[in-house]
Amino acid sequence: MPELPEVETLRQDLAKEVVGRKVKVVAVANGRSVRRHPSAKHFRALLEGRTIKSVGRLGKYLLLSLDNTATLVVHLGMSGQLLRVKSAKEAKPKHTHVVITFTQGGELRYVDPRTFGEMFVSPGRPENEKPASSTSVNGAGPASTVPIRQAVPELAHLGFDPVEDVMSWERFALMLRARRAGIKALLMDQQFAAGIGNLYSDEILFQAGLRYDRQSDGLSATEARRLYRAMVETLAEAIKHRGSSLADEQYRDLFGEVGDYQGQHQVYDREGQPCRRCRNSIVRVKTGGRSTFYCEHCQV
DNA sequence: CAAAATTCCTGACTGC
DNA sequence: TGCAGTCAGGAATTTT
């Protein structure tokens, strides 16, 4: 399931591959993927004829700014893929729900077996007053001087982006204190931090040496600092490796290639295997309907 | 049949 | 007592 590092990898490649391209035709094979729109036609009409100006990201959402005030938003859910192909002749994988054909040739395909993901065009609002917020998220090139949360109201609920929105660890510590929640649940809460899911929360917590069930308002200053560093560094490292592709998962980059970070995993999906630091067995527990992997010795 | 995990939703519970 | 926040559980989904 694509989380921040996988989506960021996609963003970087999309920036090179589709910026400047003009949408010629949009074909929707499964309306569920564009469910926010009254109809597939409505979605197509907002996209056809538009040129992609820049590609941004907020948490797990991709944001393709168009040459008007609109933004094409893509969320991959847990099984979504975006694939760039040079020719329409290339065989379409099963569950190809949306195909965007460019006037310059080539296609961008949206494939999603489980259809938890979605695409939609946020019309933006007519540019009137200027942005007041200080935090801008990437992709905000000359085309979009408006902060993403304002340009795309559908994403206004999202918290800070751990990679784009840099802050001091002291401020982070304050934010932890302001909540009283299990630390893993909080990391995965998209309204707190946008982009972290089950896999990376486990990796971050191992790196920080903290158990998943520590309370956010019960961390010492040192622990909060360690957590902040672990969050930023783990995500950056995963981006360098172009994300994680697990055996049973489907994550592929724009070109259909797998990521490389799974080989670096310390705990995720390593139940029963020796901890790379202390050799104790990695433990797996179920919390909130999903698995948590951790080392009982290294994480306190 | 169960398991995987995303977002959204709801109902239950908790601390102040 | 009430309120806000937390947390578990379910839905939608398909493949292994």
Helicity, in percent? Answer: 10-25%
Q: What is the element string, with H for helices and E for strands?
A: HEHEEEEEEEHHHHHEE
- CATH C-level label of the largest domain: Alpha Beta
DSSP summary: helix tally: 7
Q: Describe the main β-sheet briefly.
A: 4 strands, antiparallel
Layout of SSEs?
Layout: H1 4-17, E1 23-28, H2 40-47, E2 52-58, E3 61-66, E4 71-75, E5 81-85, E6 96-102, E7 107-111, E8 118-122, H3 148-151, H4 169-177, H5 183-188, H6 198-208, H7 221-240, E9 282-287, E10 290-295
Antiparallel strand pairs: 1-6, 2-3, 3-4, 4-8, 5-7, 6-7, 9-10
The structure holds a DNA duplex (16 and 16 nucleotides).
Structure overview:
With 300 residues, this protein is of the alpha+beta class. The protein has two domains: 152 residues, MutM-like, N-terminal (N-terminal domain of MutM-like DNA repair proteins, Alpha-Beta Barrel); 126 residues, Helicase, Ruva Protein, domain 3, CATH 1.10.8. Helix content is 24%, strand content 19%. The strands form three sheets. A four-stranded antiparallel beta sheet has the order 1-6-7-5, covered by helices on one side. A hairpin with a 2-residue loop joins strand 9 and strand 10. Helix 1 packs across helix 7 and helix 4 packs across helix 7. The chain starts with a helix and ends in a 5-residue tail after the last strand. About 6% of the residues have low confidence. The structure holds a DNA duplex (16 and 16 nucleotides).
